[in-house]
Amino acid sequence: MKLYVVIVVLGVVLAVSYLVFEAWVTANPPTYSDNVPTTTFTLMLQGFAVRERTKSRMLGIEQDFFRGLNDEANPAKSKNVILTGSTSGLGFGAATRLLAAGGGRLLFLPCRKCGDRAFVDKLKKRLSKAAKNLILKKVPEVAATGNVDVGVERLVFLEMDLGDLSSIDAGVLAIKSKLQSLPGEERIDILINNAGLVNIYGAKTVDGFEKAFGVNYLGTAYFTEKLNDSHLFSVYDPIHEFPRVVMVSSEEHRLQKTITLPGQSSFGEFFDFGLLTGGQMEGYAYSKFLLTSYSHELSKRWEGKLRVFDICPGPVASDIAADAPWPINKLVSKWMKYTFVSGEDAALPLLNLAFYKHPKHRSDDGSKPLIHFHMGEERPASRESQISSTGNDLWRLTHELLAKHNRPIPSDDRRGRTKSNIE
């Protein structure tokens, strides 16, 4: 009996504490004091607070994406979208949301295993089932009819490995070929660079780079610029601000400060983060620092060509530890599933940036562009990632590195897109 009373009391205390916490974070604007240490734990707590503050906004976005594809209010209507990393976690959730919205005009899903027909068939079935279940769960009137239709026919699967520069070349060619096979001048309206990983074993990419660096940063940057160099982005619309590039970064970027690492003789040289002694997250944070810095530089250089956003999606149930040894990978996956939000819910802030219009400048400093978001809320990125000289150096070093690997791309292309320079 005493144990029962203790459990009930604890339950009441936890419930009241949660309600107080919810009321406090909803009523108070975000404050990020320099006196608060930047750790993974504090970043996670800030993430939970952001989620509470933006709950109603995300609910409105969710409802918009359940409108029919022919409904003018459907954000995905008539948009060609590329989404990387769609096989699990956040990417799978975003793909599910877009599929439930009808799939847009075309939804390109490049992935490393998409050259395997059996894998593609299985992924297509998983996505279709998830999208239908989402509609049945969230839209009672559709559930009542039992008539659920999702845009599977609008999915375009193609093989591409962000850890292999040659594979990226082939992936871009495949996207170009598909677009050219369609009537009119179809181009990409939205690129969501979601794919990313934690390098558990200190592995290298096909091109010899540390894997987190090669996939999370270099491969993502090269893919973005290769699409642009191939003239595959749509003409810039200054009213609605398309096309757009949305980089999925992390608040972990705040844990790194420089684009070069101690002991490296050159940028991009394989760096041992002590991966067998717990350095996995340091390597991950470094790759996300580079990506966030790159996003700010890209926004400046491609101003008037497309809109660039950078977002930390917050804690998401995913397979980010899939490469860990068994049973650690399974235990981490289960822990994340029951502790963090689903990929479908975590995708809403991502879709917010990809499809909705936002101010061009930050609310806290009108002289600076609005680029970085922590889930559904704008937040300045780390000071170090916004330093102009850092962005310039990163841009130069990245293009020099790509040139060394026979991937030269114009390093300072400030031309706006017009109909006259579209192939």
How would you describe what is shown here?
The protein contains 13 helices and eight strands. Helix content is 46%, strand content 8%. It has 423 residues and is an alpha/beta fold. Helix 4 packs across helix 5 (117-138), helix 7 runs parallel beside helix 8 and helix 8 (211-229) runs parallel beside helix 9 (280-301). Strand 7 (372-374) and strand 8 (377-378) form a beta hairpin. It has helices spanning 2-27, 40-53, 55-64, 89-100, 117-138, 140-145, 165-180, 211-229, 280-301, 328-339, 343-355, 383-386, 388-404, and strands at 80-83, 106-111, 155-159, 190-193, 244-248, 307-312, 372-374, 377-378. It is globular, with a radius of gyration of 22 Å.
